[in-house]
Automatic annotation (TrEMBL):
Keywords: Hydrolase, Nucleotide-binding
SUPFAM superfamilies in the record: Nudix
Record field: catalytic activity: a 5'-end CoA-ribonucleoside in mRNA + H2O = a 5'-end phospho-adenosine-phospho-ribonucleoside in mRNA + (R)-4'-phosphopantetheine + 2 H(+); P(1),P(4)-bis(5'-guanosyl) tetraphosphate + H2O = GMP + GTP + 2 H(+); a 5'-end FAD-phospho-ribonucleoside in mRNA + H2O = a 5'-end phospho-adenosine-phospho-ribonucleoside in mRNA + FMN + 2 H(+)
Function of the molecule: Catalyzes the asymmetric hydrolysis of diadenosine 5',5'''-P1,P4-tetraphosphate (Ap4A) to yield AMP and ATP. Exhibits decapping activity towards FAD-capped RNAs and dpCoA-capped RNAs in vitro.
Protein name per its UniProtKB record: Bis(5'-nucleosyl)-tetraphosphatase [asymmetrical]
A molecular function (GO) term: nucleotide binding
Native source organism of the sequence: Mesembrinibis cayennensis
Transmembrane segments: none
GO biological process: AMP biosynthetic process; ATP biosynthetic process
Superkingdom: Eukaryota
Cofactor entry: a divalent metal cation
Nudix hydrolase domain span: 1-141
């Protein structure tokens, strides 16, 4: 049985970016785990019994980053499923895309994470050391830029 987790790739648009360069004004939220290799990841976690995948993504985001569903706008048309092994067992992680309604909203970390960063695409890819996460961030960025 594959382990299943769900989360949100959260971004914000900085108001100061010139409108001609929309892509320059986008930053992604990554959290640094307080366990293991202290890797950086969007908020995500395991599906609880009786929960659907999207409920899990919002619950985990609230637990790990202190963000309520009401503070985010779910972006239609983007959903990504990643598959990789963790300790020899298959894992599936499903991500949706969400925009911060107010780019100045405070992030409140749980004990699971020791730091957070708002990062432009290039830096987010450096922080997210896993290739599939880097590819997902680039895909999200293309998706957002193509919608403009």
């Amino acid at each position: 049985m594959a382990v299943r987790a769900c989360g949100l790739i959260i971004y914000r648009r900085l108001q100061s970016a010139p409108s001609s360069k929309v892509a320059d004004g986008i930053e992604y939220l990554l959290l640094q785990t307080s366990y293991g290799t202290h890797h950086w990841t969007p908020p995500k976690g395991h599906v609880d019994p009786g929960e659907d995948d999207l409920q899990t993504a919002f619950r985990e985001t609230q637990e790990e980053a202190g963000l309520q569903a009401s503070q985010l706008t779910l972006i239609e048309g983007y959903k990504k499923e990643l598959h990789y092994p963790v300790r020899g067992k298959p894992k599936t992680v499903i991500y949706w895309l969400a925009e911060m309604k107010d780019c100045n909203t405070e992030i409140k970390l749980s004990e699971e994470h020791q730091a957070f960063q708002w990062l432009k695409l290039e830096d987010a890819c450096k922080f997210a050391e896993y290739e599939d996460m880097q590819a997902t961030l680039k895909e999200v960025h293309q998706f957002l830029c193509s919608k403009e």
